[in-house]
Specification:
Its cofactor is FMN. Belongs to the azoreductase type 1 family. It is an enzyme of class 1 (oxidoreductase). There is one protein chain. This protein is 34% helix and 17% strand. The chain is of the alpha/beta class. Strands 2-1-3-4-5 form a five-stranded parallel sheet, with helices on both faces. Helix 1 runs parallel beside helix 5 (173-192).
Length: 193
């Protein structure tokens, strides 16, 4: 039996693109794996405390969820060119030195599949004016690599999500629609692979 750990981080419920796309992944994954286990964690509804140097009694449960997962799905919008602080708090609780590479270079979590679904108000693709402002994907790649969760890591980005809201971006509305449709297509493929 395979297990999916689904984590959402958006502060929005109504109109959240990451919740929409991560939900589509989870729905397709569960249909393809009817006997699979499913754990859902909403880091906005139930935030993880930031580390404060004390034993907060929460890390063991969070680590057990990662241990049990074969697939980890992170739904994370881009906030101020990076990740929500709720996701950072979760990472700080689970990505500890106990999960760094073993002496032989392997990782306890090395065989897990990780899919990161992100929504971005603008575009950060190579060649765009804001390409260098993407601190979300590079940060997640780096921090997940420290605990072996980068070995089967995929990113799915829905970009230009603010094209309907920001008047200066209205010219990109069709591209936003295409990006969202492409994200849905990709998560469906990934969920059933």
């Amino acid at each position: 039996m395979t297990n999916l750990l689904h984590i959402d981080t958006s502060i929005r419920y109504e109109g959240s693109v990451t919740r929409e796309i991560s939900g589509a992944f989870a729905e397709n994954w569960r249909a393809a794996n009817p006997a699979g286990g499913y754990t859902y964690r909403d880091l906005h509804a139930s935030p993880i405390p930031h580390k404060d140097g004390t034993d907060q009694g929460i890390a063991a449960g969070l680590i057990a969820e990662v241990d049990a997962a074969d697939v980890i799905l992170l739904g994370t919008p881009m906030y101020n060119f990076s990740i929500p602080s709720t996701l950072k708090a979760w990472i700080d609780q689970v990505a500890t030195s106990e999960h760094f590479a073993r002496e032989d270079g392997t990782f306890a979590w090395g065989g897990k599949r990780v899919v990161v679904v992100s929504a971005r108000g603008g575009s950060y693709k190579p060649g765009t004016p804001r390409e260098g402002f993407d601190f979300q994907e590079p940060y997640l790649r780096a921090v997940l690599s420290m605990v072996g969760l980068d070995q089967n890591l995929e990113f799915v980005h829905a970009e230009l999500t603010l094209a309907d809201v920001v008047p200066q971006m209205h010219q990109f509305r069709e591209l936003a629609v295409e990006s969202l449709a492409d994200a849905h297509r990709v998560v469906k493929e990934l969920a059933t692979a």
